[in-house]
């Protein structure tokens, strides 16, 4: 998902009022140490509204609080210490939410809610990495951002963050870990990393402010290369500018590079997908259980329609980037090259509570036009191409080379 990284990227949903953030997620997330998994505004997609949804949880209509009252009575009568009524109430809420067992469903007390909203506004300093969770609820790197501290320190997608400054992350939410990693610019944070079967190791990273050019493009002969690093509020305009230049210069094919793109605004995914699709073609569906909650359609600004296109994805492609890749493939507008994407496809909704606290709750999942569930499953390209450590060290990019080879065979 929020629309942030490491901070999670949150993709913002379409219902009710939207927040100018990316958030996603995701999953997400969402839910970079930029804005904030994945939130997974995705590591995640976040709806900010208070409407009632379709219950799929099977939960009882009310809870029996008698056992809670009994625990409180024992504490009140027997506890040798001071009991803070406010902390007790906050603890009740937090425990109830944590019992849902979803890393992207989280309760924020008023102080945490304020910090969360700051990250939605993009006012964050961090290491430049989107965070999420894996199938075992470990906190993992979704994607390090190109050129920023996390990447420079050698962090990779799927790396597990086992501890932050020696504090274990087991049982912590993505948001909690993100807040521990963030800090004052110029200060250090030490992460304990688990990578595959390797022995855990520590990496110390200096925090910095993150400023990202979300879109880069160039013409390589008769091929247009378009790289999107995240789906932010300027992505659609920049991608349209690139598309117009490609068309003016007569490119015969396009490579859309979404590798290590942790996501961002849902609207960005729709806008970018629309560069290839006819108006009204399905981009993504939001489902709660088997119920379709909403659908997003292309807007018809299809400057690149009909141009042979290859989309590059990898394990750091999440949330909005997965939505875009799935939409273009399912609608026959592109083929995918690379490796399986991250699998951040859940949608979060934020509820404001009377005392200033907030509840972020997973309300739905994203599905591609052909009904593929993105969440935890990801998207597998038709053409699998890996990049080895030796390739990376030598500055080779076999995935991009394969994309160019596929396109050139079509001319």
Please identify which CATH superfamily of the domain at 215-343 and 367-408 we are dealing with: 2-enoyl-CoA Hydratase, Chain A, domain 1
Radius of gyration: 21 Å
End-to-end separation in angstroms reads 38 Å
Number of strands: 21
How much is the average pLDDT?
A: 84
Largest sheet: 7 strands, mixed
Structural class: alpha/beta
Helix content: 10-25%
In the CATH hierarchy, what is the architecture of the domain at 215-343 and 367-408 at level 2? Answer: Alpha-Beta Complex
The CATH topology of the domain at 215-343 and 367-408 comes to 2-enoyl-CoA Hydratase, Chain A, domain 1
The low-confidence runs, each spanning 5 or more residues with pLDDT under 50, are: 1-52
CATH class of the domain at 215-343 and 367-408: Alpha Beta
Strand percentage: 15-25%
Overall geometric form: globular
Number of helices: 10
Q: What is the structure about, briefly put?
A:
With 411 residues, the chain is of the alpha/beta class. It is 24% helix and 25% strand.
């Amino acid at each position: 998902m929020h629309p942030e990284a490491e901070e999670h990227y949150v993709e913002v949903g379409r219902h009710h009022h939207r927040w100018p953030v990316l958030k996603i997620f995701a999953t997400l997330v969402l839910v970079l140490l930029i804005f904030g998994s994945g939130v997974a505004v995705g590591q995640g997609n976040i709806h900010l509204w208070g409407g009632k949804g379709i219950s799929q949880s099977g939960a009882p209509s009310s809870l029996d609080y008698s056992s809670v009252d009994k625990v409180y009575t024992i504490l009140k009568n027997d506890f040798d210490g001071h009991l803070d009524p406010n902390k007790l109430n906050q603890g009740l809420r937090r425990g109830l939410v944590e019992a849902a067992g979803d890393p992207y469903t989280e309760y924020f007390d008023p102080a945490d809610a304020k910090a969360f909203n700051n990250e939605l506004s993009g006012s964050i300093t961090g290491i430049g990495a989107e965070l999420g969770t894996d199938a075992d609820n470990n906190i993992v790197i979704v994607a390090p951002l190109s050129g920023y501290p996390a990447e420079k320190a050698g962090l990779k997608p799927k790396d597990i963050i086992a501890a932050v400054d020696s504090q274990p992350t087991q049982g912590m939410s993505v948001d909690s870990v993100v807040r521990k990693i963030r800090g004052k610019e110029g200060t250090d944070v030490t992460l304990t990393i688990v990578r595959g079967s390797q022995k855990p190791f520590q990496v110390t990273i200096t925090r910095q402010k993150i400023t990202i050019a979300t879109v880069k493009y160039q013409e390589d002969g008769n091929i247009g290369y378009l790289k999107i690093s995240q789906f932010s509020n300027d992505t659609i305009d920049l991608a349209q500018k690139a598309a117009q230049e490609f068309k003016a210069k007569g490119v015969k094919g396009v490579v859309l590079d979404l590798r290590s793109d942790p996501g961002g605004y849902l609207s960005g995914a729709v806008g970018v997908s629309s560069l290839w699709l006819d108006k009204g073609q399905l981009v993504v569906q939001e489902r709660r259980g088997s119920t379709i909650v909403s659908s997003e359609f292309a807007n018809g600004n299809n400057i690149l329609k009909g141009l042979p296109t290859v989309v590059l994805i990898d394990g750091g492609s999440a949330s909005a980037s997965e939505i875009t890749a799935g939409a273009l493939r399912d609608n026959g507008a592109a083929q995918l090259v690379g490796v399986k994407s991250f699998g951040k496809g859940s949608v979060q909704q934020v509820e404001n509570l009377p005392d200033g606290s907030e509840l972020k709750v997973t309300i739905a999942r994203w599905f591609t036009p052909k009904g593929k569930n993105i969440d935890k499953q990801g998207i597998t390209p038709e053409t699998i191409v890996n990049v080895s450590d030796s390739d990376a060290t030598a500055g080779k990019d076999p995935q991009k080379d394969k994309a160019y080879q596929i396109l050139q065979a079509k001319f």
